[in-house]
Amino acid sequence: MKTLRGIGASDHVAVERIYFLEKVNLDVKEINGCNPSEELVKYKNANNIALHELKDLFIKTSEVDLETAQVFDIHQMMLEDLDYVEGVESIIEKGKNVEFAVKTTGDKFQTLFATMDDELLNARAYDVKDITSRLIRILKGIKEEEVSINGRFILISEDLLPSDIVRFDHKQIAGFVTKYGSKTSHAAILARTLNLPIVVNLKDRFDEIPHLGMMALNGLTGEVVINPNQYILDIYAKKLQEEKELQVEFEKYRNKSAITKSGHHVLVAANIGSLSDADLVIENDADAVGLFRSEFVYLESKEYPSEEKQFSIYKQVLQKCSPRNVVIRTLDIGADKTCDYFHLDKEENPALGYRAIRICLKEPELFKTQLRALYRASYYGNLSIMFPMITHTEQVAMILEIIEEVKSQLILEGVPMNPVEIGIMIETPAAVMISDKLAGMVDFFSIGTNDLTQYTLAVDRMNSKIEDLFDSGHESVLRMIALATKNAHEKNIWVGICGESASDLALLPFYLDIHIDELSVSPGKVLKLKKAIIESH
Ligand code: PEP
Ligand code: MG
Q: How many angstroms is it from 374 CA to the middle of ligand 2?
């Protein structure tokens, strides 16, 4: 037995088998004097297998997320692209081995795409890399890693990308452990959304995890026990039993409105990041979606998502969640959330840098594409749009102007739309201090306590060394929340909290005291929060 400790980022426990997500070695050697016709047969066979794999992946993924699945469709087309095929064949005809021919052709096309003067085409470089790796893996006789164990397991990986996770059946995953990351990394948010434990940032101790065996995982304390003894197993069994019993208890609050004993009604909403998460909104009985982090649509894509692609996702989310109100936040990229195809420069202080609305207002075409998709989707449900990282009234004025332009154009095109509420995130001290002015410009506020805590306390939310200082219950943060809420209510607009601390029950009496209108939390925490509100005065 061995105990390691990382950062617990989702307060659940699990005891399951270890399942390692391996990165396979795809190095190839150059061999001369090969028989071209034999190598060509190998190439054709590998191509066929790759096409089959991609078809299967498309079918499997489209059941969960059609948008992500389309990547596998594109990959099938690329495998059959004549220039790519001819590139491989011409090297084989020179007597080289097929693995080398595929690698050389792949590298050539990758460089070609990466250096083109078009960001969309730049993104194709990653797709070429993907199909090339697939072919080499097949040629080396390595099967695509499949979840070959039955039952549940704890997924272990240095880092978890959205594309890693779609390969698994979510129901089989009991928890996650990663070498890198923080409480707010994508994997952590996903784990909380799925109600699973995650321990991140094990750093070098990650390398001590064996590739086989059992693991006990505590997503609250960050404890990772490898091959736990009976004593530990008993403790975890008790914790699991308690979790089950609590879940039964929370179920009693399904279909109930969260109204305190003194009659204050709080909407309990859910935070989500993808189309497939929309099911969790309904499963967990959320009253609304308080935050749809639209940047995940961009993060899960290998190129700028088109207006059509975004429209289709937003429309489906709205339809699925109808009649609930859905707050979709516009792109909040930058800082910890980066996409290669944005080609963002490395910055000294990324959290204070070129991110979120700052990018959107400097790149209006990108912004307008998203706004067009959103307004087109508005027809299919109850949409509110929210803007992140606001610091200046001028930003809001600019946003409102751009919205008018987008709407006028859509009206000219005869596109049907529904009325849309406009809100802003209050997640900078600047926004709090001018919230009296901002409240007169929009329909609602949503307080992002993750960033508000970071900026108020000057504590980097990604830095695990100072995690003890990251306190969303600090008096300064609470005063900020109270001030913004007061200013909003004075202008008769509603206020929600969508940062992680919205689910902090220790802060609930304070939120009720200031008459917060909505708390938006991970879907799995909705019923627990409803119970706590209903039992409050
Ligand atoms: C926040 O800052 O509190 C928030 C909800 O946004 P994000 O965590 O996506 O930055
Ligand atoms: Mg934020």
A: 20
CATH homologous superfamily of 36-139 equals PtsI, HPr-binding domain (1.10.274.10)
Is the CB of residue 335 less than 8 Å from the CB of residue 448?
Answer: no
Residues having CB closer than 6 A to ligand 1 are 184, 291, 293, 332, 427, 448-451, 498-499
* Stated pTM of the model: 0.74
DSSP 3-state percent helix, strand, coil across the chain (nearest 5):
50, 15, 35
| 266-526 classified as CATH 3.40.1360.10 | no
Q: What is the DSSP code string of 308-354?
A: HHHHHHHHHHHHHHTTSEEEEEP---BTTB--GGG-PPP-SSGGGSS
Testing ligand 1's pocket by substitution, the residue of 450, 461, 497 carrying the most ligand atoms inside 8 A of its CB is: 450
The enclosing H or E element of 88 equals helix 82-92
Which CATH fold would you assign to the domain 2-21+147-232?
Glucose Oxidase; domain 1 (3.50.30)
pLDDT tens track for 520-537: 999 999 999 999 999 999
User: Which residues pair with residue 218 across a beta bridge?
Assistant: 13, 223
CA angle 377, 381, 386 (to 5 degrees): 70
Rounded to the nearest whole angstrom, what is the distance from the C-alpha of residue 502 to the centroid of ligand 2? Answer: 13
